[in-house]
Amino acid sequence: MFGLGIIGLAIYAYTIYDVVISNFANETDKLIWLLIVVLVPFLGTVLWFVVGRAKRL
């Protein structure tokens, strides 16, 4: 079970990193995505990979 926690944490950290380095049309979109990922970790991560990555420039 500990290994699954480490994998989940790594995916979560990568998601935050991916949002931060991504180019957006404006900084407000980046801030909104960052807040979604941080405040709602599991759902935010899934939404980022399904919806958010396609919306960036």
Number of domains: 1
Main pleated sheet: none
Gyration radius, rounded: 12 Å
Assign a percent range to the helix content. Answer: over 70%
- The secondary structure category is mainly alpha
List how many beta strands DSSP finds. 0
Count of runs of 4 or more consecutive helical residues: 3
Uncertain residue ranges? none
The coarse overall form would be elongated
The proportion of residues in beta strands is: under 5%
On the 0-100 scale, what is the average pLDDT?
Answer: 91
Order of helices and strands: HHH
What is this structure, in a nutshell?
The protein is mainly α and 57 residues long.
Description:
With about 55 residues, the protein is mainly α. It has one domain. The chain is about 85% helix and about 0% strand. It contains three helices and no strands. α2 packs antiparallel against α3.
Compile the SSE list and pairings.
Elements: H1 2-21, H2 27-39, H3 41-55
